[in-house]
Amino acid sequence: MKTGIYSVLCAFITNAAIGACFVPFLLLGLKKVRQMNTFWILGFYWFLNGLVNLRALKVFSAGAIREFLQHLSDYYDLADIPLALLIFAVSVRGKTRKQLLLVLLGFVAGESLLIGQKGYAFSWPIVVGVGVSLIVGFSITGLWLYLKKMEHDRFENSMAFIHGAFLFAYGTYLIIYLLFYLRASGTYSETDSSLLYYTSLLFSAAITSAGMFSYGWRWTRTSNPRYSSSSS
């Protein structure tokens, strides 16, 4: 009975999480949201997340489509961290943006060199471990800087949601990563890790969507337009 309920719960969470990944992309349909470069990249980021995770659904679990999605997932693993760093960089200005872009370029260069010399299988754990740690660190920094300010514009309020979503998603992934690589015999469950991953994905996508929706729905002409596509 417990196994049956657990399986149903896993299936429900997985399907809900994958569906939620496409919501930020759909929110680009809101006029004010699609005026922001940050939200375009964010919507594309979540669209790719949903796409590569489609292989977890039964309808895509076999045949050529699963093979295609698996190859796409391998490539996305390499683009995931750079995309997240790009989102952070585009959302700010001045010296902070330059610093983030330098980190982004340094990460891509290091990733490319490591894979070129050692191959994908050897490099993947290192790339993921370093990259996830970077995103967790920048998410915490972003939230800390937000909390230090007394007043915020609409975009900054929205980005607080985004930083929180990234912290939750990548923080959970970091836990799963450590459990996998530090696992002792019989203590690691792939099913439990999968449930934890998709639960994290669901909540992160929902938090991101809430942030984007709050901006698109409540945006006014008096908001600071400094982050719009026309000023980037």
What's the SSE blueprint?
Elements: H1 2-21, H2 23-26, H3 37-52, H4 63-90, H5 94-118, H6 120-148, H7 154-181, H8 190-218
Helix pairs in contact: 1-3, 1-8, 3-4, 4-5, 4-6, 5-6, 6-7, 7-8
What does this structure look like?
There is one protein chain. With 232 residues, the protein is mainly alpha-helical. It contains eight helices and no strands. The chain starts with a helix and ends in a 14-residue tail after the last helix. Residues 220-232 have low confidence and may be disordered.
Structural key phrases:
232 residues; 8 helices; mainly alpha
Give the structure's gist in a few sentences.
By secondary structure, this protein is an all-alpha fold.
Count helical runs. Answer: 8
Termini distance?
56 Å
Q: Provide the β-strand percentage band.
A: under 5%
The low-pLDDT segments are: 220-232
Biggest β-sheet strands, sense, barrel: none
Structural class: mainly alpha
- According to DSSP, the number of beta strands is 0
Order of helices and strands: HHHHHHHH
* Helix proportion: over 70%
What is the arithmetic mean of pLDDT?
86
Radius of gyration: 19 Å
CA-based shape? globular
